[in-house]
Batch of 2 targets.
Target 1
Amino acid sequence: MNQLLEQTSAAILQRVDPRLRPVVEKLVESGKRVMYSEKTRELAMQQLAGGTDPENIGAGVAQLAGMLFTESNRTVPMQALAPASAVLLAEALAFLEEAGAVQVDEQFLAACTQALGASFLQLLGITPEKLQEVIGQQPAAGAAQPAAQQGIVAGAMGGA
Amino acid sequence: MAFAAVAALFTAEAVTATMVLSAVAEVGAVMTVVGVVTKSKELTKIGGIMALVGGVGSLISGAVSGATAAGAEAAAGAAAGEVAAGASAEALASSAGALESGLAPGVLEVGAEAAMSIPEAAAAAQTMAPPPTPQAAPVTPGIAEPAALPDLGPTVGETTGSGLQEMRDISSIPQAPTGAEAPISPVEMNPNDQFLKAGTKTTPPTDSKTFWGNLTDFAKKNETWLKGGLSGLSTGYQADQRNNLYSRELDQRQQRINYGNQVANYTPGIVAGAIR
């Protein structure tokens, strides 16, 4: 594997919670099996037929991560799935580089990672509007404080 | 077409607020790591913003209790983490095999057919998933089985104008079913989840530049609560540090007291003994 890709995989795995490390490794192994399996190889080839640009590669790996998530009956935590998908991206890029389809450098890897993140979040249906719904319906962090800070004295004084 | 077919797999699944924020935070963290390795300022910046949005969002939404998101998340997931790791690892190992045999070439090209073949593989995996241990905390009720739950108000599938549903009083929710029917994940085992999204809409793929541009604009528009949340995290961290210092000081005082008790029994040395 390309040294940059090895470095990336190592850095990602290093920040994974040790309790979740076996889950991440299982995910990566399962993902590799799907990627390299004879039965699904055609699927991978069809994906690559769309081009080896970062957007296509990122979307392909995101789809793989989505499949793994669904196949695990949604029991896999995001803390494991996100790092695993990044490691699978490195694996996919290593495979493509060995096949001579791409030349992986820092810019290319960064672009692929951006595409992977965008595609993965879109698979979950996450958009700015969704985030606004999820977060925006909660009171702002400091909204309740002014009311809470009115103590006994202030209250006796008429709530100044 | 394939992307839409895979995205459609999520359509019938409920995505919790915790899952959304956790995904954003984790993707952001991964992007930050890769950004550092590749020395990409843009990637590091986007990753940092997303990690912040996800982390602070979790804090504000009540998904995390305690001063810091990271620490509380670890505490909340500690009991379930091992269960989830074991259950999901086993389910995944068996489902990967099922996936290989269940998928025919090109099956994901057609949305309707994909929906038939992949759940079959998932069903095979379900039967092999080990049951959770009793330490598992009550989970939010399985969306697939609303009939087993007490009246929670709007049933799954009905949506409000905003597309979100509120859960009733959580104390009335019974223990989740055990065994393969009870997906357990630290992400979902949050009794404070107030939102259930009935179905995730299939969003058309947007290219990454546009997507991240939209999300960073969102972060800029919501700068106030982001800063507030960050300030809260910082305050919580400082409080935690002060607490640690105070504990250490108490320990030292106790040691001095213990040492002082020993000093009274200390036999005077040669000089002190000679002077007396």
Target 2
Amino acid sequence: MFSRRSWVSAAGAGLMLLPSLVPMRAGATDGGAASVAAEADDIVVVTHRLFPSKAIDAARLEAIFSAIERSGANGKPIIAFNYAPEDKLRVEFDRVVLHMTPEQVSRYWIDQRIRGGQRAPRQVSDPVLVLRLVGKLPGAIGYIPNRLVDDTVSVVARIRAGKVISP
Amino acid sequence: MRTATTVLGLWLVVGTRAIAAPDVPTPSPAPAAAQTSVAADGGPTTAGLQRQLDALKKDLDAQRAATEAALSGSDSPEKEQMLRLYGFADMGLQRITSNGSRIDVIIPSRATTFAVGNINLYIDAQPTDKWSALIETRLTNYPDGADQVGTQTSPYQRVDTTIYDINSTTGGWGTVKYGAIILERAYLQYRYNDVLAVRMGQFLTPFGIWNIDHGTPTLISLALPQAQVIGMYPTHQVGVQILGSTVHGPWELGYYATISNGRTVGQLDLTDDKMTGGRVYAQFRRGWRGTFGLSALAGRFSDQNRVIRTFLPLVVDRTELIAYNEQVAGADVAIDAGNLRLRSEVIHRRVVYDPGKRETVVGAGPGFYVPDHLETNWYGLGAYQLRWWGLEPFLYAEVLRFPQYLGTGVIMFAPGFNIHFNAAAQLKLQYEKFFLYEDLDHLRQGNSAGNDGSIYMLRLVLAF
């Protein structure tokens, strides 16, 4: 009833349809797009390219931005840059890294001054300026939105979904 | 057959390309500066001009940043903040009642009175990133009003600093009261790195929690631990201090070490004996903070006079009148967990006098001398900030064993609450009830009748 030629043609047609049933990338799902979107929302912690550490964990970030750790492994001063207390980027950074609300952060720095201790990280007005300063000053560290990162700085940590993760 | 071969070939081409194509993310838009929108007449559109303007602004910001970085230099990134002035002040109301007890000896007023508390100004200089100086001054109306209770053999005395304002344009008949500046600390510091900094000058003794927290904005309670009030350790020292800390994950390990003149009657040390001491602490940070510390001091106190015994030949006698050796040790813990703050310290002091060189008992008259003795102080403090109106109720309790003529010990309870208007301003209220015991070692037998008192305190506090 069906000739050999018919069978071969049908098999060929079926094989042609097979690639459309295989995902374009193994394991790829809609989470791929979500993952890219999440990365785009990251706050990235950036340093000067000659900064001695290539990755900084949450505990050390907290120590640096609490002015407890002010010198790097090479003995050179760490220059940390921050934003104004009400800046949304800073509020999120303080919440995740320092585990403090804006009022708690303000009170922390008042306490530090009264004790006669550390100075707060220098405040800068906007992330573009942070990017340029960090790129220029050895020992500098700051944090900016992921979309601003370029090759003038090194990424040493990321803040995503309320957690500090590796770069 | 030929048809099947053709179909198979087509599949190999199309299907293979479909499987092997990499997952290329959606390319980001090209930089705005690279895009030029051209209007129908060949000139740039408004949108295109705006994009060029934005790009130029970005370049200008970058140039400014580069200029600022170059001007600031890598040695002193905070040049524009080389000198800072800040401080705190507290004013308020207080009332001390003694119930006719022996406390009347030391209470100048049993009335409700307004009071100027602390007015502390800091001068904080950092000319380079490694060198700095800190000076903290307290402005006061003292010694005006300082008094000495009279006895049957000596009259009551009170200091009055009223003077005629002779520089005034009103003719010099008006009067003013002069005050004084108390130097809380003044030191120069060289900071080598996180692990080593050296301070020279006058500094707050790094002992326990309270003396390091130091100021009313930072302290939770208005009531001070008696260890500080009666001076179980010298709260200020003149000498050299080294300090530093190191961070290991969530732990910070730190130290202070001091060598100083110790307790002195004047500005200078009268003997070569120096007081040595220090503090070590471990702080844990992971959402909540806990600090655990140990402190210790040891030194010898000496009070001498100088008298010209003869003029020809000129002979000056230096006579040591009072001398004792002391050792002080303490342990402390501080926990900050969310809205909860806990503090506790225990301090122990041993005093041994040189023979014949004892202090006299204050207010007890001649012939009464202070014995060799041990002093012990413990306090506990818990505070919790509520969600409403910045309210922070707290409870403070303390026990002091300090043998003196008012009794061998004090037990104190002091509840209160703070109202945090914001990070800088707060209102602190506290009621303190204390009991003096003749014999603290046998509390039930101790007679506290009449030997107690109350203190009502209110302070408005501002950090600036």
